[in-house]
Amino acid sequence: MADQVRAIRTRQTILSAAAKVFEDHGYQAATISQILTEAGVTKGALYFHFQSKDDLAQGVLAEQDLRLVPPARTSKVQELVDVAMLHAHRLETDPMVRAGVRLTLDQQAHGLDRSGPFVRWSEALQHLLQQAREQGALLPHVVPAETADVIVGSFAGIQQMSQAICDYRDLSSRVSALMRHLLPSVVVPSVLASLDLSDGRGATVYVEALKAVDELELSSSVG
To answer: What is the value of pTM for the model shown?
Structure first.
């Protein structure tokens, strides 16, 4: 067990170091040597967890995935909002998530497949939208796959704008505004009126999500 915990910590140390190096230098200019120096680990330890610079980059990219998820909601539209607001909050507060997003948007990262986060986020939102349709929450013209792509693409633009202007400090309010502008063309008015689209929603959901993770880990250790 101790070896497993140590291996998990080493992997996270390497990922954090890679994230910093990619953020400081960009994917193309970053080197394995820089990451080794930043992480303070041996080359053998790094290659035990990651086979290449590309493998490291994919690990950083995956950190922004839905690993910390909002609790399930009766309203799947609210759950979709919570996903977006939680991600905004994590971008404001988590350097690893920020590094992953910046790497996703690094147009100089030639040869690196940056499509994964876009595809995975779109699929997750499409699933929620399909469930919302089954609840009768969507307007008749809405195509879940199309709407999911619009939301993901719009979020990417909004977060890039926020990063350029104030290093994500206003991202929650910008994503709240995005939801208020997009959802009236997607959701029936009765559902729209019941949604919590407030700026602080992401922070609230973050606390709920962490509590759910802690409870799951506790039950697993007891079991």
So the answer is: 0.82
